[in-house]
Amino acid sequence: MFARIIILCFIFIATTGFGSTDSKNNVVAEITAKFSRAVAEKNAVHFKSLFLNEKVSWFAVISEQDLNRNKANPSQKKVNLHEIGPFSEWLVNTQESTEVKFSDCKASGDADVMVADCEYAFSLGGKKNNYGREVFILINTESGWKISGIAFSATGPKKDGK
After folding, report:
1. Which residues form the domain of 51?
2. Strands, DSSP E only, in 10-143?
């Protein structure tokens, strides 16, 4: 009898609570919605509040397609480090509209750490600027889930804007 109770408890815990895919997806949906809203509203305070701190690693990995297209620009690097502060300053000061959309998000992790992998498209002035996959490393802090790292692939639009 005791063994049955233990097994039932294990099944209950394994199929409910934070370990469920729905709970993880809810966290990711909330973070990506806040990220998108802060970008669209050009709200540096809300944008920065999503991150553990301003020293979070945030890497753009430029597609081979774009590297080949931009061969005339010898300063173009495959991997580029972004910083939260300068990006949020640019966000507030750019005159063009900004938008980022996330889709096809997948989450993996537990109640303390998680990785979210999403497709994204970033638009500037109403035109797609770059797109690819974006991976967030999330940690659950005393003040809720925070982004502790980002890496994203970046492919710019083709000459026809797609």
Report:
1. 2-154
2. 57-62, 79-82, 98-109, 113-124, 127-141
Give the tens place of pLDDT for each residue, 81-127: 999 999 999 999 999 999 999 999 999 999 999 999 999 999 999 99
114 half-sphere exposure, CB direction, 13 A CA radius: 29
Domain count, the chain: 1
Write down the residue that tokens 């992790």 correspond to: 109
Calpha distance 4→143 (Å, rounded): 38
Amino acid sitting at position 61: V
Per-residue pLDDT of 22-36, as tens digits, reads: 889 999 999 999 999
Q: Does residue 27 fall inside a structural domain?
A: yes
- CATH number for the domain spanning 15: value is 3.10.450.50
